[in-house]
Amino acid sequence: MADSELTQDTVFVDAAAEKAGQAPNERSAIYGELERRAKGKRLTPAQRRIAQCLIENRNEIGFLSSLEVAKLANVSQPSVTRFATSLGFNGYLEMRKHLRANLVASDAPMEPTTNRYQAAALAEIQNLEMLNAVLGDEALIDGFGKAMATSRPLAVLGLRAAAGLAAQFSYFAAKVHPDVRLLSGGGSIIEDILEQVKAAGGKTLLAFMMPLYPRETLKAMEFAKEIGLTVVLVTDVSLADNSAWADRVLQAPINTDLVFDSYSSPVLLVSVLLDAMCNHMKTESQKRLDQVDISSRKRKVFIR
């Protein structure tokens, strides 16, 4: 967890389970409870590490001492106690008892032979179900689409772990949008490009931010707002408030069970945002797609 990690209040819903009358899975339950209690609070980096540790070790919460949690999160034991009291508990023991009591086992059957890779795939399915609930807010998606479609040029930012998402969006967006400018390298040149975007009439910065969160991403969003750009942010689901950096926020859960995080729901969001942007470009997007298709066929770019 990086020092600059941030989050936003989000309703956690296991849509498929709810529809079927089932209880939400344990991961969603502890996410939701910690998020509810952290609402309106600015958690310290150490406290965010503790929260992540509790989520990752949810099956052992009822048995871990405050010292054991501190060692797992690489923080001091008093930090664990302060985290508990900051969430409104009298101490760590009360927090542990409360979290354990509020965890609900998922009704979804799991084969005893499920290995860690299959478990990761199941976790991503749950993440997509959570994203499904977020996508129910059509006004939010539409707001993203309009902000991107009306910005000429459109700046797209993605550094480090988020660079792939930004590049994927930019590749397809350039087929329909007349001027997409990808910012995938750090340093002061980001501010130069943002100033150029603003001078050319651009209105919006679309930012992708995934853990660990580069300080340069935060700095770029702050600078974009200073010069009058609207910042729309796609990030993961965590535990605080990022309204200081972005005007609109879309959050998608990621899976942290493997050595490196996996991003099924943010990847789906890329396609959703592209679709929302095209909706606001009306016939212009289809005309540009037709032109791209004619050109690629003429130059025999693709095998098929």
From TrEMBL:
<dbReference type="InterPro" id="IPR036388">
    <property type="entry name" value="WH-like_DNA-bd_sf"/>
</dbReference>
<dbReference type="InterPro" id="IPR047640">
    <property type="entry name" value="RpiR-like"/>
</dbReference>
<dbReference type="InterPro" id="IPR000281">
    <property type="entry name" value="HTH_RpiR"/>
</dbReference>
<protein>
    <submittedName>
        <fullName>RpiR family transcriptional regulator</fullName>
    </submittedName>
</protein>
<dbReference type="InterPro" id="IPR046348">
    <property type="entry name" value="SIS_dom_sf"/>
</dbReference>
<feature type="domain" description="HTH rpiR-type">
    <location>
        <begin position="30"/>
        <end position="106"/>
    </location>
</feature>
<dbReference type="GO" id="GO:1901135">
    <property type="term" value="P:carbohydrate derivative metabolic process"/>
</dbReference>
<dbReference type="InterPro" id="IPR009057">
    <property type="entry name" value="Homeodomain-like_sf"/>
</dbReference>
<keyword id="KW-0614">Plasmid</keyword>
<dbReference type="GO" id="GO:0097367">
    <property type="term" value="F:carbohydrate derivative binding"/>
</dbReference>
<dbReference type="GO" id="GO:0003700">
    <property type="term" value="F:DNA-binding transcription factor activity"/>
</dbReference>
<dbReference type="Pfam" id="PF01418">
    <property type="entry name" value="HTH_6"/>
</dbReference>
<dbReference type="GO" id="GO:0003677">
    <property type="term" value="F:DNA binding"/>
</dbReference>
